[in-house]
Amino acid sequence: MQETLRFITCGSVDDGKSTLIGRLLWESKQVFEDHAAALKRDSARYGTQGDQVDLALLVDGLQAEREQKITIDVAYRFFATTRRRFIVADTPGHEQYTRNMATGASTSDLAVLVVNASKGLLTQTHRHARIVAMLGIRHIVMAVNKMDLAGWDEAVFSRIVEEFQPTARELGFQSYRPIPVSALEGDNVTGRIAKPSSSWYKGPTLLEVLEEIDVSTGSDNMAFRMPVQWVNRAAPEFRGYCGRVASGHVKAGDRVRIVPGGMESNVRSIIAWQSERSQASTGDSITLCLEDEIDISRGSVIVAASDPIPLSDQIEAKIICLSEHCLVSGRSYLFNLHTCQAVATITAIKYRVDVKQGEHLAARSLNMNDIGVVNLSLDRAVPFEPYETCRRLGSFILVDRLTNETVGAGMIDFALRRAANIHWQALDIDKSARARQKLQKPTCLWLTGLSSSGKSTIANLLEKRLFAAGKHTYILDGDNIRHGLNRDLGFTEADRVENIRRVTEVAKLLVDAGLIVIVAFISPYRAERDLARSRFEAGEFYEIFVDAPLEECERRDRKGLYAKARRGELRNFTGIDSEYEPPESPDLHLSTMAESAEECVQRVLHLLEEKVDANILRK
Amino acid sequence: MSPKAAKGAMGAAVPLLVGAAATPTGARLAGNAASEPGARESGSLQQMEAQERQSGIAGAGDRNGSMRDHIASLEAESIEIIREANALAQNPVMMYSIGKDSCVMLHLARKAFWPALPPFPLLHIDTTWKFREMIAFRDRIAAECGMKVLVHINREGLAAGVNPFTHGSDRYTAIMKTEALKQALDRGAFDIILGGGRRDEEKSRAKERIFSFRSAEHRWDPKLQRPELWNLYNTRIHPGESIRVFPLSNWTEADIWNYIARENIPIVSLYFAAPRPVVKRSGQWIMVDDDRLPLGPGEKPEVRVVRFRTLGCYPLTAAIESAATTIDEIVRETETARTSERQGRLIDHDQAASMEAKKQEGYF
Asked: What ipTM was assigned to the predicted interfaces of this complex?
């Protein structure tokens, strides 16, 4: 049995999670005298228990939490009995802090789901149960709290326990242990208080369950896997691979394979502190030396040669959205999986999960705290295991490339086979052949800016100049494309991202056809413009910021759209109630307040002469 | 300024560099192997290594098998965190405060990268009010460990004569510790800073992530912490921002002492009980470490057998009366302690939510 049990307390706000942990700490004699004295002072000032000490204040350590009398972020506390050590994560109950609850759950093996006896099961109870199940927690203890307020009514307890039974079964918990408790008065937490009214409960106390439960996953019996964190080159002839064993055992002489790469070798030695060790197992931090000199870097996984792991650039995964900015199909994010990093694009949101019933709902985007199943396309193949098999090799986070925010947490279900079967059809006449025939260098000029900033005017004039010089051109105009190809898309963030993704692909095909393509799209988000750039070869794509202040665009208002938006007749209008993110370093910055359309076009032509073709205006 | 240039400037100008940065791992300076009878530091690094080779990993501190497993898994987790911090950093540094937690951190770092030296320097913020023995110990470890040790003092604060008495502990700490720390971090342009903070120390620390984001002004915003799931750390930052990393997050004070015993890690002898000159102030024993401590009317130092549970600036760190003169006795005392370790830290009690406020301003 595990020496240390990591668990969380979760459940809805005001169900008494912090009080329950405070009670566990208090009764397991983990509270020092000076902390107890501080608790008395704090209780008088912030407490919710009148003259009594408020045990929740032992864990609600932030000033804001004490003032608002709620838990905002996860607190990690430690306590021990003679039988076991515990690391407990006290997590917030408010829906807006669900991501902090997920943080606590990701490293726990058991969840104490707290339910308020007088309120019964709430949406948040179901949400938390679903999240802990998804994060791989297999054991759940339901603490039906505030039984004192419910008069220790056995029927109240039984009703809640039975009502949750189907959910517990559906979510596949290995164990589900309900206990009636009063965190406030201490009944059934660490000991039993002799009350005639509670004598009907004959089961163990919460602490007894926590001390006895076996939550082992058997990862010790699985095949050997170790992601490489760092390559140790202590001396020119020394090459040690540092990492923490994710599963299984390893010993000197074992045959191992490197993923990706597929090379095989034997383990020469396992380096420990100033000595060698004979073997290592799950959870050990070690340094491995191999018989052969193989090029292995951070992000590779060293695995048992007889039982390798999958490698894929297309995966299906469950995702929790952790950010106020929604996750949308078509957008790309940094993807951190064990020790390796890639760029992931959400290619499809298959569905969103309804937290209460578990139903699958159609979705174009995932908002904060939403759980969904998505397909991800990666810029390179990564070694992984399904999360169900191995938490360490199947979990990942998504990071926003501009704000650096952690926007999503994911668990890999499996690799998608599709991509492997569709190969790019190589054609004999290629882009350079078509370009030679047209005597021009295919280029994409991407004009971004607010509505009425002058994009279409400049695009139109520019095309006339290039056409007159005998160039082969095409304009992709936002309004025109929305009449046909993108007719099905609206103006939500998710639709705007898809709008740009499609136009990027069309522009890319036209550049491949040898044309000079002028894109005139508001394209409000940096992430999509960066993604567009990444789809082209170096020197092929130029971002041109057509800049005019919002007041000026609103004054021009060529299509009367700003007026409509101001009247509330048009939703999600860029600049009014939808954000425009100006380029940080465009290839060209045009100010249509200061310069005439003709002058702007002249500057674009200069850019082309300088960067693309010095003779662009010569026939 | 590029981090590299900043680093060069730092070594040359402000902070004083101690220790033989170029000493190869194998050839350590011969320390004073036979320690004086009075100073009970638990052996030099050299002695420790010799013992390790004989006894293997399990050490004398283990009282039973399960404690060994528990400490071993904490050690493995910390080593993973230290390696991860290093791999993800452009310009990492490890804080070194000379206390027991720093000693454990240094030991873990040496283990994590063995047989190479830890690939980052140590940084000590010297307030000029540390115990004299701490500074001597720092210089000895710096000479022995072979790593670069950067020492930074807030020169402006020193020139202005800032001290804990006339300026008060609050302002003194802000200028000589927090401000000094920010100066050193800015000058070094460090992006990842390893520190020895533990969640069991204090209630706001219990709320902090292992990889904890700091703004360009070194501020911590407890309400906007990055979600930190599994062992996946987001270290992406904009220029000027930084990440503080706490590999000892999940250790308790008792774990630290058990580990020091098990691994025979050298620590400052102030942790062991000995007769020392002290004065009683507000019910706490303050050691008279040098003649800068102003004595009140009628206040006379007396010699008491005391030791320290935590070490900081001597006028702000209270001693406890204790007879614990060996590591085993300290372990026993820690496990039965009725008060918390930071009880002896005077600055923690300056105001309500004191640590949280200091941390928000950039304090470690």
From this structure: 0.81
